[in-house]
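Workshop exercise sheet. Pairs work together: one partner reads the sequence aloud, the other fills in the structure field after running the prediction. Swap roles for the next sheet.
Pair: D.N. / O.F.
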Amino acid sequence: MLNGAILCIAWIVGLLSTAHSNGWMGLLGLGLGLIGMRVLSLRTPWPLLYPWRRGPRVAFWLLALAIALLASLYFFLRIPTPGSRDISRIVPEVSRSPVTITGTIKTMPRLTRSQTVQFQLQALKLQAKPTQKTVRGLLYVSLPPKQGKDLHPGQRVEVSGYLYKPRRSATPQGFDFEDYLTRSGIFAGLRGKTVTVKQSGGTWGGWAVRQRIVRSHARFLGPEKGALVSAMVLGHRRVNLPFDLRNRFVKVGLAHALAASGFHVSIILAGLLKATDHLSPPTQFLSGLIGLIVFIFLSGFEPSVFRAVLMGMAGLAAVATNQKLNPVGVLLLVAVGLLVIQPQWIWDLGFQLSFLATLGLIVTVPPLTQRLDWLPPAIASLFAVPIAAMLWTLPLQLYQFGIAPIYCLLANIFTTPLLILLTAGGFCSGIIAVVWPWAGGLLAWLLAIPTQGLIWLVTQISELPGASLTLGTLSIWQLVLLYGLLVSAWLLPIGKQRLPLLMTLAVGIIILPIWHHQVHRFQITIFDRATPPMMVIQQPGSTLVLNSGDRNTASQTLVPFLQRQGIDQVDLALATDLRPRWREGWPELLQQLSVKKLIPISLTDNTALQEWILKSQAQPEQLRSLQIGEQLIQNQTQISVLRHQPTLLQFTINQQKWLMVAGRYQGLLPWLQTTQVLSPQVLWWSTKVDLEVINQLQPQALILTSRHIDAESLSQLERRIPQVYWTPRDGAVQWNRDRGFESTFPLSENPASPL
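Structure field:
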């Protein structure tokens, strides 16, 4: 059994090594180190090496190393690549021209946070004046909500819009959209404007069954409660659940309740086995198997669903044959089997969290329940299950997002009875709704009070002070050490005297590096936006934010970036553009973070901005326009306004001069000839490029966020200025007091920072 587990782990470790291009060298080092431990244990009498003497032989460790290296090679061989006729190969030819794509809808359209409808389209034909080509490949299509209405899989459609190639996140540690689509075999996107249905396609299938259930639930429960009950059965990916409600569940640590996973499988199996406990084991197995097949058909074929259903089938087999099952071995076999089918799932966050949560339930719930033996068994289990799942998933959550739900345990304890009732009731009503929608909806109506109670509970917990703790993301070595502690706690007997030591070590591994980073950090991040220009200055003891962008940029780019940096409070926020679209980002920021001061730097009337702020119940200083020559001081940063149109801001950061030029450009050369402006070390240019003015300012480093600059002008600037960054090419640009300048996409070698 041990040898089999080691081989399974070797396969998983081999896939994980693909995180780095030279990961195979790490595998060799690890494998040779383990072999060396085995050889050394045979030649020395050290007590610490005694377990290695009884462990696997050198030949077995060589086999494990070979399997790990094979897994790494297999991963790269299975990376999806575009075919010779894939539509992505045509993108460079037509990226700036309108095109019409004919194809078949493959996935159910769903509403995104950006308030667009997205779906996958199997492309068949491309029309772009004056050419027409037969193409192949999947497209990621986004449409305005009205255009995406009444679309469904199987339809033959013509979508008109603009093709583009997905790009990696230009924000440090941001969501990698390109990698996300590549894992699905998608290499191009289409920003659709209009859609025309050419063939209606089939009217039956998995999508139709799911829509039948969703409509049945919504008919009697209303849109919000109906969507929540449907999500309990189908998963939130299959239901247009309101994003504010979904955010509340995530904030209190109940995201698993909205994702079809092992939690739902366990409830369904427990109900079926209880209902058939008077029948023979084969009949119980058959009923459970049918229930699992129905569940996977309804919720879709996703990694977490596959894992949960396969584990459930193994458990059913054990019940039917009256055999004792090794759950850890089954979990490893299931994981390896899925990763053989699709090795890209190793980097699917849902798969990772699902695997870790299940492992935690298997290995940690029993000892926790024993330590809680002073409680009634049902109550002890109610505490042990969420604690175990939280312990094994929290390090990964901190590594990915930098946020810890403080009331996760409280939320799980109080909501578990309601979640069980709604999952079981939603599953039953959904099955009935497939045959008779009215009857299924009527049964779902009985869940109205529990559903409202769950929403109320989640809302109340999410509004408690400090509902989530923003710590900042962990480094990879912190992640490895934390899971090393968890594994040691699982494999080695832990007495009461060792438990406080392990807990202290875990807290120290998390807190000390974060505390050191917060106290000593001095970093400037300039995002790849031209309008409005966005910057975050992190310095010891304070944070400054310049502009928030529109609503989507604030919620999907700025807030996640700040949270990953461990920032839950902005000391000074500056707004240089008060046009309606750019005002909407501030309420989104204020809903997630505390802002001490918000000061607009604009000649525009700020009444509308003030109204937006009041809606968010924020309490910044009185809003006023900053006068020319007036100076703001925030810790080690000084800001002064040199001009309003275009906006010229001068920053003195760490005793270095930065100059920002943004807004509607009206020419600066005459003004510069009559005004004394010192040459800045760093010039940040975010408007129409003026080579003459840039050359006169003579910066040591130039950061261009303007989208429009010709290759010749850019080449001239790169010849004259030591450092030139163009964010559409290089992504976001960061300056760090220790490392100097760095860009998200380091496409070219740059000399050392002049700062």
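Discussion prompt: Residues 748-755 have pLDDT under 50 and may be disordered. What would you look at next?
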